Amino acid sequence: MALLDLNVDFITEQTIQSLADNTNITHLSPGSKARLLLDIINDKLGIQANQFDANTGKAFIRNASGLLLDFIGEIYGVPRQLKTKPRISKEERNFYLYTFQNNFGEINNSEPINIPAGNIAIYNTDNPDEKQIVYTNTENITLPALENIVYFSAAAQGMGTDYNIGSNTMTYHDFTNYADSINQTLLVNNDASVVAALDDESDDNYRFRIQQQTLAGEAANYTAIRLNLLSVAGISDAVRMQYPRGIGTSDWLIKSVTPEVPQRLLDIAQQAIDDKAADGMENLAKAPVTIGVQLVFSITYRSLLEDSVKNLIKNNVRTQLISYINNLDIGESLVIDQLVKIVLNADDRILSMGVTSSSANFERINIYKRSALSNSKVRRTIIKDYVALANERVIVEPTIIDPVIISDNN
Q1: Residue 218 confidence (pLDDT)
Q2: What is the rounded average pLDDT for all residues in the chain?
Q3: Per-residue pLDDT tens digits for 231-258
Q4: 232 CB contacts (<8 Å, ≥6 apart)?
Q5: What b/e string do you get for 273-289 counting C-beta neighbours within 10 Å, with b at 16 or more?
Q6: What would you measure as the largest C-alpha separation in the chain, in angstroms?
Q7: For a Cys-Cys bond, which of 43, 132, 316, 328 suits 332, CB 3.0-4.6 Å?
Q8: pLDDT per residue over 321-352, tens digit each?
């Protein structure tokens, strides 16, 4: 905001010209005593002008509303947040179609299932009397005959925070163009929550953000960069790693609301950093190093149960394990005891886990890490907690069809 519009260089130029025209002081080049005194005085004037602008701006902001507040926000470079529509890309591996059968071919006469863009509606409830949140697929979907799970892109049918959703809530759909639709063997779900949608920002919230801009506006300030990153929809946290390439360099590790960080989110994050970073400093937005996990174990039930009931119990266990792992923070370790507690507390009908002839609860816990020599991943089995490095994030391994394999002991 420039109410006084006092530019230090302009003041210095005008002062030098006035001294040259009206006094006998002629030695005014940089380094001279007269020039040094002018620079000191004019720098102080510039600071006072900035403070006056800030104080005057706050006085206007306090009573401004509506369109007038929008004008003030534009002056500060802080636009009002407008209502947005939540969208999920296929690469985020969130929305997926699946079947409990061996593959999609078994539910469609050995043929793939093709779903044109916009031809499947996904709901959070099949009861029309309840509040329905509806998403549709934004691209054509092909469900190969030999696979049993496929991720797809989707967008809400409306705008605003009413269309934000929690994880594992979008479990109904209206697609029936496959052979076994009468048995509803084609299923849908979402691995992670969707919280990217925004409502039109209220005057009170907008006024607060404009006021904070006067505090966090200094370029290269840690708080300013971090606040700007956290204002990006889809970013749940940002962790700074200092001096990865020497003095003057920083990496900002982005934790997204989905397990993996989409490239488009990194691009937006980099722009948010560049808006605050000072010249001469290298600040880069990066995804944390992902450590994939696969769990293999068995369950013993307290009594004999039908296979359909066992499947429901195992699906609940699988969902809770995936949710726990995918919500670990950057640098947070994978604790095996916590995994065991989740399994045993998931359902009262679970007696124990692991085979009776072994003291181990898990048959295998596989860790997938990117190879230092190639772009491939290396799998290894761990027998104790995985202690994550500061730049690592443990997630469920996204490249395998079934990252949580559960078998029955009885």
Answers
A1: 45
A2: 85
A3: 888 888 899 888 887 767 889 999 988 8
A4: 265, 268, 269, 272
A5: beebbeeeeebbbbbbe
A6: 106
A7: 328
A8: 999 999 999 999 999 999 999 999 999 999 99
Q: How many CB atoms lie within 10 A of CB 21?
A: 7
Q: Where are the beta strands (DSSP E) in 257-363?
A: 282-286, 289-301, 350-353
**pLDDT classification of 78: cutoffs 50, 70, 90:** confident
Q: What residues form DSSP beta bridges with 136?
A: 121, 155
From the list 85, 319, 333, the residue with the least C-alpha distance to 199 is 85
Is there a contact between 235 and 229 (Cβ–Cβ < 8 Å)? yes
Distance between CA atoms of residues 211 and 222, nearest Å:
18
What are the domain boundaries of the chain? 87-190, 220-287, 289-408
What CATH number labels 220-287? 3.30.300.30
CB 253 within 8 A of CB 261: no
Query: If you count DSSP H runs as helices and E runs as strands, how many of each does the chain have, helices first?
Result: 8, 19
Single-letter code of the amino acid located at 212: Q
